[in-house]
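Write out this protein's structure.
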Amino acid sequence: MFGVLNLNKPSEKTSRDVVNIIQRIVKPAKVGHAGTLDPMATGVLLVCVGPATRLISLLQQAPKTYVAEFRFGERSDTDDATGTVEYVHDATEVSESQLLAALQTYVGTIAQVPPAFSAVKVQGQRAYAKARRGEEVQLTAKQVTVHAIDLLEYSWPVARLSIRCGSGTYIRSIARDLGVQLGCGGLMSALERTAIGEFNITNAVSAADLNAENIAEHITDAIRIVSHLPQYRCSADEVALLKAGRILNVVPEQLRVQSPAANDATVAVVCSEGMRLLAMGEIIDSGERIQPRAVFCHDRKS
């Protein structure tokens, strides 16, 4: 098994819970997910199987899309509805035009402080562990990218939003900061991840519906994970060199760039038909050679 499962994570299950279900089905193959969802959140959870676990970092770089519900006039220690909620009794109703104007200040590259109840490490410990013990948690703001925020519905005090963002963005931090900016308090009351890159909620399956007999038909081939990267199509002789871990000399007509804007030194090394991923490589020596970095065509480890 060498690919990725597009799973629909249910509420109240951790991402690890879902991974464990898959692990029991495919063991001894390796399994890993590409981006944690909080227990309250639902939606797309990509789980890589077998050697595809070595491609998780590529999936993590893909933009993510969420549908979130924010509730104003409230705040909590977790920045969402699962924590200790405090009502802001003097909160003034915010108009739709005020909300729309405020939302645009969160689009672009912004500095964001993660929630105190998060997996960010502080002095070697997870922030949530310190927060649960009642210890003060001071986190440093990090640069994150928010590509777009669209207001889907709004009726005070509840807003429903579509947010497209980069890796490391905390949606509940946006709810918290928005509430502070508007002076009314805010928290995230629901969250669904609807897409990671090309993987969409409409094609996601429930891990509970999978078993040893049907799981293979739901695994998307690893070639899909690298579809945005330049491809180098190997000849039969080059496959033999690749299996030996040898550097490949680039034959220009065998190098195909998927996007005119692509200038990444990372290249997907594929079979001559382009249907099977053989390795990941790095273009070196001014584009004349490819150094293999992860070879799959001889990978017998699960």
